[in-house]
Amino acid sequence: MVNKPTLLLILPWYCYPPLTGSLQRYYHLARWLARDFAVTLVAPPNQESLEAVDFLPPYEKLGIEVVPAVRDRRLRHRVRRKIKYTTKSLWHRLVPANPEVESRSNDDLHQATRCVAAGRRFDFTVLGTTFLADMIGVLPREQRGITVLDVQNVESSVWEQWWRGLPEGPKRQQVERGWKALVRFEKRWLPRQDAIVNCSPVDDEWTARETPGLPRAVVPNGIDCALYEPDPMGTEPESAAFIGWLACYTNDNAVQWFCREVLPAVLRDAPRFRFIAAGKDPTPAAQRLAGPNVEIQGTLARPQDLLKRAGIVVVPLLEGGGTRFKILEAFAAGKAVVSTSKGCEGLAVAHERDILIADDPAGFAAAVVRLLRDENLRRRLAATGRRLVEQVYDWRIVAGQFRGFLKGLKR
C-alpha cells in the first residue's frame, strides 16, 4: 500500500455540522482531500449538536485525524497566556488589531498546532481563511512543509465595504480601525505563504498585486449535487428564500434591504408573496421584520427542506467576497435565482442565461415578480443552474482542482 502524502489542515472552526458557507467549504475540501492525503485537522472543538446533520458523515468516518484546539489549563500555561494577553492589550492601544483575527488565530489554536506537529513532518499545511495567515509563524518550515493559505475572502476588502456602507458614528470608526488592521495583517503575512488559493477571479486579482511571484490558484466554492433534488416550483410557489448566517453583517444587511426597499414593490403586484430568511443567529433587527409576509427562521438542519418549500431564491447582497454558496445551493435544488451583481460575483453566470441580476430596488422587485408569473422562465433558469453546478461546481470537480494544485507545487 502506497503511503499518502500528509496534510495538516488548520481551521478557525470545527466545521461540522457544515450549516454555513464557510463550514461547507472546509468540510467538503477535507472530505475529498482525505481520499488522496492523510489529513490531520486542528480546529476548536465543536459547538453544535453532531445530530444536527444526518446526511453527511463526521470527520472520523472519513479517515481524518481530528485534534481539538482546547485550552491548556496547567498553571504555567495560564501564567503565560496572562502575560501575553496583557502585553498584546497594551500594544493594541497603540496599534489596533482586527477582532476577528484575534478571536480566530488564538493561543489555543497555536498551542494545539505545536503539539500535533511535535516530532512530525507534514508534506503540506493548509490554512483556512485569511485570519489564520499568521499561523505560518507558529511552525518551523521542516514541520509544516509547503504552506498553502486558502484566502476564501479578501477580508480587508469585505471590511472596507462594510465601513463604506455605515453612517458616521462610533460603529463606523470601530469598523474602520478593524479594516485598517486587516490591511496591515494581510500585507505582513500573505507574502510569507508558499502558495495561495482564492475563491474567485476578483480575489485572485487582488492577491496577484499583493503577492507577486507566489503560486496561486482559483478554487471556487462547490456543492454536493447529490444531496439536492431539483424542484423548480416548490410547495409554496409564491415565496422566496434567503439562506445564510444571519448574524453576519452582509447577510443581515441583505435581509434588511430586501424587506425595506424591495418587498413593498413586490407585494403591490404579488400580495400573497412570502419572504423566508433562514440561518444561524438572526439579529434582533432581522427578527423584528417578521410579519404576515416575512418569516425569519434560525439554524436549518436541512436547508434542502426550505428549498423544497420555496418557489425561488433571492440573493440581495450589497457587500461581500468569494463565491456564494447561496446561489450554488439554489442551483443544486433546481431554483431560479434573483441576485445583485455583488451577490453572484465570482460565479460563471450570466444575466437571463442562468440567473436574473438587478442592483436597484425597483429592478430587483420586477425580477422577482417576473419569476413568480413566468413559469417557463423559472423552469428554464432552474435547469441551466442545475446543469452549471453539475458541470463546474460539484465538489468532486472543485476538490480535484485543489488537489491538483497541491500536487503541482514543488517541494
Give the key terms.
411 residues; Rossmann fold; 7-stranded parallel beta sheet; 6-stranded parallel beta sheet; globular
Folded structure, characterized:
The protein has 411 residues and is of the alpha/beta class. The protein has two domains: 6-220 and 395-408, Glycogen Phosphorylase B (Rossmann fold); 225-393, Rossmann fold (3-Layer(aba) Sandwich), CATH 3.40.50. The chain has 15 helices and 13 strands. The strands form two sheets. It has a seven-stranded parallel sheet with strand order 3-2-1-4-5-6-7, with helices on both faces. The protein has a six-stranded parallel sheet with strand order 10-9-8-11-12-13, sandwiched between helices. α5 (141-144) links the parallel β4 (124-128) and β5 (146-150). α1 (21-33) packs across α15. The longest helix is centred in the middle third of the chain and has 21 residues, at 249-269. The two termini are 22 Å apart.
List the helices and strands and how they pair.
Layout (H helix, E strand, L loop, with lengths): L5 E5 L10 H13 L4 E6 L21 E4 L6 H20 L4 H6 L2 H11 L6 E5 L12 H4 L1 E5 L4 H10 L5 H20 L5 E4 L2 H10 L5 E3 L17 E8 L5 H21 L4 E5 L5 H4 L6 E4 L5 H7 E6 L9 H8 L4 E3 L16 E2 L3 H13 L1 H19 L1 H14 L3
Helix pairs in contact: 1-15, 6-7, 9-13, 12-14
Task: Summarize, please.
By secondary structure, the protein is of the alpha/beta class. Helix content is 44%, strand content 15%.
Inertia-based shape: globular
Q: What is the tally of helical segments?
A: 15
Task: Using the coordinates shown, work out and report the CATH topology of the largest domain.
Answer: Rossmann fold
Report how far apart the termini are: 22 Å
CATH class of the largest domain: Alpha Beta
